[in-house]
Amino acid sequence: MAVEKHVVSVLTMAGGILHEILSFIVFTMLDLLDFLLCYAFKVADVIMEAERKPCYCSSGKEAITSSGKILVSEQGESKIVSLTCSKLQLEEISDTLYARPSWVSKFSKCSFLQSSKRISRRSAGPVRPTFTVNPTIVEMLQGRIGRQQMFPVPRWSDCDCKTCTSWTSSSCKETLFVKADGAKDIVQEDVLFIHGFISSSAFWTETLYPNFSKSAKSKYRLLAVDLLGFGRSPKPTDSLYTLREHLEMIERSVLEAYNVKSFHIVAHSLGCILALALAVKHPGSVKSLTLLAPPYFPAPKGEASAQHMMRRIAPRRLWPMITFGASIACWYEHITRAFCLVMCKNHRLWESITRLLTGNRVRTYLFDCFFLHTHNAAWHTLHNIICGTAGKIEGYLDEVENKLKCEITILHGKDDELIPVECSYNVQSRIPRAHVKVVENKDHITIVVGRQKAFARELEGIWNSAASGHRV
């Protein structure tokens, strides 16, 4: 028995070492591929759009604080980027957008740094205060100031079908797409559903909506939203998809448009971050908070929260496959743009192929979830929301614990390999009264898909208990 355990231990160790070696080789090759695709897309942008678009591979440049257009405060002050007509906090922009170390990126930036040092030595005269920022952020902000169109046209690599560009119509208000169901004439309570990353309202409407009881639909108004940049919602090309932008669009499109005064929230994955921020902003309006697989990894003391979050959800490993996919999505700006060019731009083709191969037996609502977005939306939302808000989550959780009196329920699939169960217990450590339920044999997606009937009953129980003041 002891010999067998020793053999298993040795094989496990050998497998781990082999996995590390293969992961290093594959991701080094992906580093190089992303580096090459950077230049390929720059050429394509010039050909297709007659201008070179900035990307986050670019080295930092100095923004002069007295320029009059973009003002960046010195370190230790309020740290805001000031625009002509509005302000955007620099804290909302994650450094993981442009700080993803690899040997290729370090080599490509080496010459820039050396030349910058030589130039600084030669400079003379009074020094004007400057702040090093990524040029992509500066150029996107400058583009906002000089923007002439209310609705920027899609980029050549984005889909231009009617579904994806319906929001550009002059008759369409600049609000999110909201799928409403349930109570209409006499609405007793509202429920807001917020989907996760690379998803849409179909994640809820195609699973839960058909399974709510008649009594629930007569009482509750169900409001599932497509987040900014996803599904049928606006996908502005000049947006940085910050937390503020996402929250303001939810408020404008749901709370104000539907005259919502108090509401229940159901959120999945990335949506949990937005749900917490929304609850903190409207503490007296939230009647219950249901979080599915909340991504919360407390950063060790002295470690940058955003970078820690990126390494936890995207550890540059080949296995499991969902982690490999997350690593590609998080680390490679140009590989993910190539993916969107092939998959998202041609989502109608892939839908048709799926229907043909399956004899139209498979419902294709998951295509809406996975392919109706732009690269700009996915890239910025991933970094500015999932990674960039990592340092704010603890504050949100503390405020939820101290200021909100509503019922808080957390559900997590035990087999979730993307956001492990420990995240839900991490949340509970900050909010002790939160009830955590771990669902056996379910993962990040099947926590809802495949158990929609049972989950619909659970939600109805949560809402009813919130009304009566008793936990189910």
Give your account of this protein's structure.
The structure is a single chain. This protein is of the alpha/beta class and 472 residues long. It has 2 domains: 51-106 and 127-148, no CATH class; 163-468, Alpha/Beta hydrolase fold, catalytic domain (Rossmann fold, 3-Layer(aba) Sandwich), CATH 3.40.50.1820. Helix content is 47%, strand content 12%. The protein has 17 helices and 12 strands. It has helices spanning 2-49, 103-122, 135-145, 162-165, 202-205, 214-219, 243-256, 270-281, 305-313, 321-331, 333-344, 347-358, 365-371, 375-387, 393-403, 422-430, 452-468, and strands at residues 61-64, 71-72, 80-82, 87-89, 130-133, 178-182, 189-194, 220-225, 263-268, 286-292, 407-413, 435-439. A 7-stranded mixed beta sheet has the order 6-8-7-9-10-11-12, sandwiched between helices. Helix 1 packs across helix 11 and helix 8 (270-281) crosses helix 15. The radius of gyration is 24 Å and the shape is globular. It comes from Sesamum indicum (Oriental sesame). Residues 191-298 form the AB hydrolase-1 domain. This is Probable lysophospholipase BODYGUARD 3. InterPro entries: AB_hydrolase_1 (IPR000073), AB_hydrolase_fold (IPR029058). Pfam families: Abhydrolase_1.
